Amino acid sequence: MSLTPSFLIIENESHKHSVPVDSETHFKVVIVSSDFDKKSPVQRHQLVYALLAHELQSGLHALSLNTYTPQEWTSVEKTMDSPNCMGGSWPD
């Protein structure tokens, strides 16, 4: 299984969450790929989750996924801001 993106952004958003300094557990991913043609948003996310199964089992805690076909991307060309963490504070 693979994915061939024509556009890809990966942002570490761990600093926005209640995690230790320098954590790499929360990411926002923007993917534009023709592999998403004729797939629902749920199917697109399932594809990405399957590709990242090892990472999700090895400490990757959260993904904010923005998945687009190339046609959708030409009309959107923006990413949604991820919400700030609503959890408790990490102890110093």
Description:
With 92 residues, the chain is of the alpha+beta class. The protein has one domain: GMP Synthetase, Chain A, domain 3 (2-Layer Sandwich). 25% of the residues lie in helices and 25% in strands. The chain has a 3-stranded mixed sheet with strand order 1-2-3.
Number of domains: 1
**Beta-strand residue percentage:** 25-35%
Low-pLDDT windows of residues: none
Report on the biggest sheet: 3 strands, mixed
Strand order of the largest sheet: 1-2-3
Topology readout:
Layout: E1 5-12, E2 26-33, H1 41-51, H2 53-57, E3 62-68, H3 70-76
Parallel strand pairs: 2-3
Antiparallel strand pairs: 1-2
Describe the structure using short key phrases.
25% helix; GMP Synthetase, Chain A, domain 3; 25% strand; alpha+beta; 3 helices; 92 residues
Compact overview of the structure:
The chain is α+β, with helices and mostly antiparallel strands. Helix content is 25%, strand content 25%.
